[in-house]
Hints:
Blueprint: H1 2-18, H2 27-37, E1 41-51, E2 56-66, E3 70-80, E4 88-98, E5 103-114, H3 123-127, E6 133-144, H4 148-156, E7 163-176, E8 181-196, E9 200-215, E10 224-236, E11 241-250, E12 257-268, H5 269-275, H6 278-292, E13 297-310, E14 315-325, E15 329-340, H7 347-351, E16 361-362, E17 366-373, H8 376-388, H9 392-410, H10 412-425, E18 431-437, E19 442-443, H11 444-449, H12 454-457, E20 459-464
Antiparallel strand pairs: 1-2, 2-3, 3-4, 4-5, 5-6, 6-7, 7-8, 8-9, 9-10, 10-11, 11-12, 12-13, 13-14, 14-15, 15-16, 15-17, 16-19, 17-18, 18-20
Amino acid sequence: xxxxxxxxxTSLVTACLLASPLVQASVEQLETDLSELxxxxxxxxxxxSESSRASRVVxxxxxxxxxxxxxxxxxxxxxxxxxxxxxxxxxENMRIEDTLTxxxxxxxxxxxxxxxxxxxxxxxxxxxxxxxxxxxxxxxxVVSLDSDVADEVWQTLSLDQGAGQLTIESIQGKSLSxxxxxxxxxxxxxxxxxxxxxxxxxxxIVGRFRAEDVQGLQQEELEQVGAMSLERLxxxxxxxxxxxxxxSMDGDLNDGAASVQVExxxxxxxRMIALAPPEERTQMRMVANVLTDGTGxxxxxxxxxxxxxxxxxxxxxxxxxxxxxxxxxxxxLNVELPLVLPEGVTPVDVLSDRVPLEDATLLGGEAILTxxxxxxxxxxxxxxxxxxxxxxxxxxxxxxxxxxxxxMVFGPEVEAVLMGGMALLEGRASQLIMSIxxxxxxxxxxxxxxPLGLPELLSLEVETR
Length: 465
């Protein structure tokens, strides 16, 4: 996601600012500097004026015709306050057009830079590592999806560039530089796209998107997002119909915790089946009926918290997470891992994937996996019986025989897990709890190297309720 934030924010702001005319304290100097700035094309200015009482310099009706076919139009460009340290710089009714195709590429009703530190922000200024745009606001943004402004975003998302239009009611940002973003917030974003890779025609609406403390934009291996939230998402395409109430992520690991929350992700399976090729619909409908108990609407909720604590002689990594498929299945995981990390490695390095956990020495630890059946397991038995043309009892007999057979091959721990699953299949239980205790001292890479040997290395208890 940080890649998307980086590409969109830097592409948009750079396009806007590079299209802005240079303003100086006097009318004469303004006209001279404008001519120098836009020397690679033709520039016309309807009127330039200044007001010493209001400390304001205004350029009106600016038209720039570039040699590569671009046309930039700005109705008003205003610098308020001291030119050397403006209170703000404002652009009103800005448009970028492609004169070769006649297509509008980008338009903005209003762009305001609060205390930008200078009246002119050029491409050279933007690439300066020490430059930071303190605060900006954009209202009424419209971007063509087949424009150069959108091209970098498509490349970042690994999608073929499509056609259509993106509109955003308002954008606000703070502390924007070439390498970081302090805050960035979009409000009421809507996209109508055509031929968007495998999605086909797409309609997307986002009520609010916010990102905070985005770092490492010029170094992919160092990219991280302090916090991010996405609210009121609706997307429909030739293959997908979904909505999301909330996606929230806290990625700031320095406070000892990080979290991800997904609230009310809903997939309209009935609509997606109707959009699928006719030969695929029967199988898709069977799967949908099993997952949703016939409603055709699959709801998903996710909540996960990772935490760490650095102690004198060891570190403690933990996590609590749950995934719920409404009216189907619930999965909960609780993990506590005391460990010793290699010299110079911190828990933050591990949780941010900069250093693999395989190099750590585990000092025991425990993981508890809880499976709650909310109707899915019984529906799977019914589906299997229907597909095989046998009774449900026959399906259970085969499953029971296979569970015992695998237990004889892989040991009593595996058999305990499989027989616990049988209790769910038979309806004798609705909850399966697996408690795993690791040995007092071990290396995680030993488990990865010999997964079939895990039952002998771990202490496993299985309980059904």
